[in-house]
Write a structure and sequence with these properties.
4 strands, DUF397, DUF397 domain-containing protein
Length: about 60
């Protein structure tokens, strides 16, 4: 399976040094997260439940 990585819509563009990409891994493997500036550097694998928990924590983080 080829993973289709998607960059965050909050990324600031080409010069943004803090970019994250997400991709749905094989059917039951979960969600992958990687550094868009180093796509060959590997990725973090999260279960669907872990990813949902991460999203909830991010939503509670105060914005600037």
């Amino acid at each position: 399976m080829i993973v289709q990585w998607r960059k965050s819509s909050y990324s600031g563009g080409v010069n943004d040094e803090q970019c994250v990409e997400l991709g749905r891994l094989a059917s039951e493997a979960g969600i992958g997260a990687r550094d868009s500036k180093d796509p060959d550097g590997g990725h973090l694998t999260l279960s669907f439940a872990q990813f949902a928990g991460l999203v909830e924590q991010v939503k509670q983080y105060p914005t600037r």
